């Protein structure tokens, strides 16, 4: 199963993220954003080899729609990691709940300190203009443009 794939875009970075449920789609969207910023495969390899120390940060967001939940979550994680000078590389756990007010998400994000050798592109933000969440059949698909 494809978790995410990058798509052509004129100026920024666009990806499609997929999932069997909303939580899985949110997790794959986070991974695509992390993969835009850093070589997450090398980061994970070096963490597993004991060359890097991995830490975890918990983030929570709520929104009235699945689309806004995705946008708020990506923006929150980007801001939190930027504030501490870190690269995210994985999601340890993610939980989504639905209530009469909308949706809530809680996620534990795996991260390491920024190191130049893992760097790819500096991400400024997540565009809300073209952000889209769709349910196609029994799967979710997100279309995201990241401002670089």
Notes on the structure:
The protein is of the alpha+beta class and 148 residues long. It has a single domain, classed as Archease domain (Archease, Possible Chaperone, Chain: A, domain 1), CATH 3.55.10. Helices cover 30% and strands 42% of the residues. It is built from 3 helices and 8 strands. The model has no long low-confidence stretch (mean pLDDT 95).
According to DSSP, the number of beta strands is 8
Largest sheet, in brief, is: 5 strands, antiparallel
- How large, in whole angstroms, is the Cα Rg? 15 Å
Outline: globular
The helicity comes to 25-40%
End-to-end separation in angstroms reads: 28 Å
CATH superfamily: Archease domain
- Derived from helix and strand composition plus strand pairing, the structural class reads alpha+beta
Q: Low-confidence stretches at least 5 residues in length (pLDDT < 50)?
A: none
Proportion in β-strands: 35-45%
| Discrete helix count | 3
Q: Give me the CATH architecture, please.
A: 3-Layer(bab) Sandwich
The topology string of helices and strands comes to EEHHEHEEEEE
CATH domain class: Alpha Beta
Overall residue-averaged pLDDT value: 95
Q: Give me the CATH fold name.
A: Archease, Possible Chaperone, Chain: A, domain 1
Number of domains: 1
